[in-house]
Each structure stands twice: as C-alpha cells, then as structure tokens.
Amino acid sequence: MKVRSLKAFATLSWLTSRQLGKVADALTVSRFEKRSIIFSEKASPDAAYILLSGIARITCVNRKGRRTAVIMVAPGMIPAFPTAVHGITYNFRCEAVTSCQVGTMELNSFVKTCVGIESAAFKSLAASCLGRWERVQLRSSNFMSCTLAERLALLLLDLSENFGAPEVNGGVQLTIPVRHGDLAELIGASRPRVTEYLIEFEHKTLISRNDRHLVVNRERLQKHLIAAHPAWG
Fold this sequence. Notes:
Strand content: 15-25%
Number of helices: 8
CATH architecture of the largest domain: Sandwich
Shape: globular
Largest sheet: 4 strands, antiparallel
Structural class: alpha+beta
Distance between the termini: 41 Å
CATH class of the largest domain: Mainly Beta
Radius of gyration: 19 Å
CATH superfamily of the largest domain: Jelly Rolls
C-alpha cells in the first residue's frame, strides 16, 4: 500500500507522511467480494479497518428483527461500532456493497502510530468524550425530532459529502447509484414516501438528475433546512 493512496482519504489526511508510511507498512490487505461480510460485531475489537477501495455499508438489526443499512462507507477509516447498550442488541455488521479491498492493522499499533498513546487510554478518552451521546443516539434515534423530509435532506448532504463529484453548475453529483429503496432503508421510511419527497425536492430545485445520477445542490438544500430550523444556522 502506497502512502499517497492513504493520504487521499479524508479520514487519514491529517496524519504526517511518516505516520502514513508506518500505517501503510503495517496493513494486512484483504479482498472482499460484493455482498460479503467484512467484519461483524463478534469480531475482535482490537483491530482497525481501512477501506482502501470499493463501497461498504454498516447494517444492524432493527426493532422488527430485520437487517437494515444505517450508513454507507466511503474509502478511508471504517467507523468502529458503537459500544454495547444494556438491554439492546443491534448485531452490527460491515458489508461489502461492491468488491472491496480492506487493510487491517492491530488497534494498539494503529493508535500508537497516530496519536502516540495506548489503545486502552484512547478508548477511555473516546468513551469519556462521546460514549454518553452514543448511548443517547442508540436508545432514541429520533432525539432531534427531525421530520422525514429533513432526515432525507440530511442523508443527501451526507452522501454528497462522501460520494460526490462537484459539477460546474455548483451541484454535487453522487458517484454511486442510489435507489429509492436504499434511501428509504437508511432513514427508516417507506420507498413511496421517499419517492414523493425526492419529487418535491426536484420541484424546489434542491436536487436534479444527470442521466441516472442524482445531483445534490448542497447550498440550496442547506438553506432549505435552515429555513425550517433557524437555530441550525
């Protein structure tokens, strides 16, 4: 693995060339076919995973017992699963949406290389800073009281940031195919309702189409959200 390849990932670009070189040398690279499981909640928590190529997603089992997607993952660090919450089982899993190449590194070595401390100390720090909020989100996913339309708008902004290519007209074209069913799964809605809101977004020129690709007008979409919630501005 080349250092310049790792530096291209936004989640690793803050590391120095020396640190990136150490990470690149320590990675064990594996290939995963489409729809295969990269790692699950049962896997060792003492490993860091970097998506080197392809598209992955993280899924969990919802309250109805159905497996559903919760986040699409672009090349770069694969987010660690949330810490367990007593009484709630999510069975998180990272899956390959396309053929993927994944680099794995022992977590303690990764943390030492990146921030110079032991992984146990890093985990304690992360739990102190984010652990409580993580539990709030896991117990009450709608604590922000966003409407369905707002959840869809936030998802489109997130996808355009991670999988977007800027266009000359100011829009951001999604570089991955996004089906209405996929969007519905990611925000916990029905496919017909998502289709309804996407049509509404097109009428308001918040999004558009370029052949079969979705183009997100990030500036207009952000203004649309702020208009509904001035405090977000």
